[in-house]
Amino acid sequence: MRAKTLAAAISVVFPALMLMACGGEQAVDVKKLMASPKSYVGSDTCKMCHLEHFDSWMMTLHSRMTQDPQKNRDVIIADFDEKRIREDLAKLGDKLKVPADQIFIPKIEDIKYTIGSQWKQRYIIEKGGVLYIAPIQYNADTDRWVNYNEATWEKNPWLLKCGGCHATGVDLDKQKFVEPAVGCEACHGKGSWHAALPKTAVFEKRQTIVNPSKLTSGVAVEICGSCHNRGKATKFKDAEWAVGYEPGKSLEIFFKSTSFAGGDATHLYGNEFSKAHHQQYIDWKQSKHFKEGVNCISCHYVHQIGVPPTRSQTQAAGSKQCFACHVQINQNMAHSIHSFANCVGCHMPRIVTSAESGDLHSHVFATLLPSDTLKNKAIPNSCQTCHKHKNEDLNELQADWDALAKIPKPVGKPIESIPYKRAK
Ligand code: HEC
Ligand code: HEC
Ligand code: HEC
Ligand code: HEC
Ligand code: HEC
Ligand code: HEC
Ligand code: HEC
Ligand code: HEC
């Protein structure tokens, strides 16, 4: 009985959909559409109906991660001069595994794609039909060239080692991808059904695409965690990105994050804080913010219509971000002696490296005290980014801190009223 009603409803709804679609758009056979598997269509397809989202995404780094210099030479941020590159490389001396004058430097015409532009830029070239990362890197803030895997670069194919975090719709079996850059579908999932449905089929439209803000917080943040992370794929040998993962799925099925305890001293400090970049998710998972459900999109936006992004795409600049929620913090401890409100300076110290040492922020949000460094010399602290100029003695700094931390918190006792006396 119910099945019959449903069938009747469908026979009314579907032709209606097709009818609605006739007003200017091509008719879509919804049944046929849904019978074929979902696939990637690329951000240019989304642009047709979501122009404002597209425009604002274009202002973010996600849209510019992987770019084709043969279409637009300006995507190369460096001055690509072989003599200058070799001079910079030569300065690295012993650090090089291949002599500076023998390191492979590609010709601009041979660069298939550039990767990155904010902190550093690397260059992809093709060899025997496979894409590799050329062994030179340009560091933007310091304007210098450095080596990058100069002895092993031909053993690390880009698609396998990096691809899924820098491009959308990567297929390792077919050695293909749909779009360079972190496109719409990297966060919203495959869009073929959604894009093909007529504009008027609003309900079906909503059902066929992932809207992260309609997922539970834990599942939504794993979308960011699928790339802002470091580790190994569980379902594809030697891949270092979450092969098979799609927005809305549980990340742990497809990816295992690295850790110091698991033997990775290259990318993490001994206290499991990140030393290397693209590990924000690993840091954040250790924080109180994680436990309270304050996630990446509580602080960052990925497309905010009409608002140009800050360098890190935060909803407010610097420490203003924190005041959105922390309107009141205790006034004792470090907070009492520091008259400025640089929350980021202490709670997100620059101890993470992308291009040069300490260019990125920790995302554990905990302050590292001098005692952390005293216990383990390899662990930096938040204080010495500022207290360094006068050869600060760490034991002294810690002692000052301990004395301050002992000051009791104010107790909520009402102040007794003092009888008013008229001056004579
Ligand atoms: C033919 C027009 C069209 C195309 C192409 C299109 N969309 Fe949409 N999209 C819509 C309409 C219409 C809605 C529903 C608006 C509403 O909910 O009021 C929508 C809704 C959405 C939503 C919100 C869903 C929800 O449940 O809140 C997301 C996210 C989205 N689209 C992403 C995309 C992405 C990503 C692409 C490219 C793969 C894309 N869209 C392509 C028309 C389109
Ligand atoms: C890095 C991840 C990411 C990328 C890339 C991305 N989005 Fe989104 N999108 C989100 C998140 C998270 C939300 C929900 C929260 C919000 O609105 O910011 C969202 C929400 C939306 C919505 C729902 C309406 C709204 O504004 O809340 C639409 C439509 C949408 N995105 C379209 C697009 C299109 C089109 C592109 C590509 C041009 C795109 N998105 C790229 C993560 C992303
Ligand atoms: C498919 C992989 C991928 C996904 C998914 C992804 N990102 Fe990213 N994200 C990147 C890459 C790669 C960059 C670097 C882009 C560049 O430098 O051009 C980046 C850059 C950023 C930046 C700017 C970093 C800077 O240096 O200023 C922020 C902030 C960010 N992502 C937040 C998010 C958030 C929040 C989400 C989830 C809603 C998310 N990302 C999802 C790969 C991803
Ligand atoms: C697990 C996902 C992931 C993998 C694997 C990965 N990256 Fe990234 N990469 C990111 C994210 C996310 C960012 C931006 C956030 C950050 O740097 O902290 C980034 C940033 C970069 C940047 C700097 C971008 C800029 O604008 O300065 C470069 C260059 C880069 N990656 C190159 C590579 C290369 C080459 C590989 C492979 C050997 C690789 N990455 C592997 C996720 C990844
Ligand atoms: C409580 C707020 C908050 C949360 C939660 C948060 N971030 Fe950030 N993030 C920031 C601030 C603040 C900065 C640095 C802003 C500045 O430049 O001063 C930043 C910087 C970044 C950068 C740029 C590189 C750097 O370290 O400077 C990336 C990439 C990033 N965040 C990604 C993420 C991702 C992915 C998540 C979720 C796993 C996340 N963030 C969670 C506040 C937050
Ligand atoms: C979206 C709201 C929100 C934003 C924005 C935010 N926080 Fe929080 N924060 C919370 C909540 C909720 C908690 C947990 C409850 C509490 O301890 O107050 C918390 C806890 C903390 C803690 C306590 C950690 C502990 O171990 O007790 C620190 C430190 C902190 N936040 C620092 C920051 C800093 C620094 C920023 C800015 C970069 C920031 N927060 C931005 C909501 C936020
Ligand atoms: C962003 C820079 C910055 C950071 C980070 C910072 N301080 Fe300070 N600190 C200052 C400045 C500047 C003063 C001078 C007082 C003022 O103007 O607030 C100061 C004053 C002090 C004083 C008072 C005595 C003195 O030496 O003048 C102590 C103790 C102190 N800091 C300890 C710490 C500890 C412990 C940390 C780490 C948890 C820390 N500071 C982190 C900048 C910083
Ligand atoms: C000089 C370093 C320093 C600065 C600057 C600083 N904090 Fe803290 N904060 C600490 C230390 C140390 C603790 C003790 C807990 C810890 O290790 O994170 C703490 C604790 C906290 C806590 C948890 C305890 C509580 O009071 O609820 C919050 C929330 C917090 N800070 C937020 C902020 C915010 C917001 C700012 C910016 C207005 C800020 N802090 C500036 C060093 C600092």
Q: Please give the radius of gyration in angstroms.
A: 27 Å
Question: How do the helices and strands follow one another from N- to C-terminus?
Answer: HHHHEHEEEEEHEEHHHHEEHHHHHHHH
Content of β-strand: 5-15%
Low-confidence stretches: 1-24
How many β strands by DSSP? 10
* Count of alpha and pi helical runs: 18
Tags for this model:
single chain; 424 residues; alpha+beta; two-stranded antiparallel sheet; 10 strands; binds heme C
3D structure, described in words:
The chain has helices at residues 2-21, 30-35, 43-47, 51-58, 82-90, 158-166, 184-188, 192-196, 202-207, 217-225, 280-284, 288-291, 296-299, 320-323, 334-337, 343-347, 370-375, 394-406, and strands spanning 66-67, 113-115, 120-127, 130-133, 136-139, 144-147, 167-168, 179-180, 231-233, 255-257. It has 18 helices and ten strands. Strands 1, 2, 3, 4, 5 and 6 form a six-stranded antiparallel β-sheet that branches. A two-stranded antiparallel sheet has the order 7-8. It has a two-stranded antiparallel ribbon with strand order 9-10. A hairpin with a 2-residue loop joins strand 3 (120-127) and strand 4. It starts with a helix and ends in an 18-residue tail after the last helix. The longest helix is centred in the N-terminal third of the chain and has 20 residues, at 2-21. The radius of gyration is 27 Å and the shape is globular. The structure holds heme C (8 copies).
